[in-house]
Amino acid sequence: MLKGRFPPSGRIEGFTAEIGASGSYCPQHATLPVEVTYFDIMEHSAPSPFLGVIDLDAVGKKGYSIPKMGTIQVTLFNPNKTVVKMFLVTYDFHDMPANHVTFLRHRIFLVPVGEEEQGPSPALGGLPRRVLCYLMHLRFHSSKSGKIYLHDDIRLLFSRKSIEIDSGIPYELKSFTELPRNPCYSPRT
Question: pTM surpassing 0.90?
Fold first, then answer.
C-alpha cells in the first residue's frame, strides 16, 4: 500500500495534517492537505486501512527543514477538523553526511500487555499477537551544507475504526521506530 501497488477502493477529500519539529531550533509548523485513499481488505475482520500522503513540495523545493536531532510531530485531522492521530517521533541524524538520504518508519501495534519489545511474533491459537494500528513513513535528505530536510512526502497508514481484539487477553499500544541498517545513510543520486 505504501508504494501504491495495491489498488485503492476510493478517495476521501478534506483531510489535513500539521507538521512540526523541535530540537536545537523549532521550524514554523506547516498545515498541508492529505490525499487519503481507502482499501477494502476482508482479512481477520480488521477495519479497512486508509493511506494518507502528505506532499512536502508545498513547503519548499528542498522540503521541510528540521534540526539534526529532535522530535517530529505530525497531527492528522479528518474533514471535520477533529484529530485522528498525533504521531510523535524522536530522531537523531547528527552523523548524517552531506548529500545523503535515509528514511524512518514509525509503527504502532496493539500487543498483549507485558509482551517484550521484539520483532513481530507468530499468532497463538489463531489470534494475532500484534496488530498494526498506525504507520508513518518519513524520508530525509541532507543538503550540501549538511542541513536536514523532510522531503518528498510523508505516508500514513491508519484505520477509520478503532481496532479491538476479543481474546480475553489485555492489549496495549506500543510503538517501534525503524531506520535502515548497513548503510544507515545512502548517497543522493
Answer: no
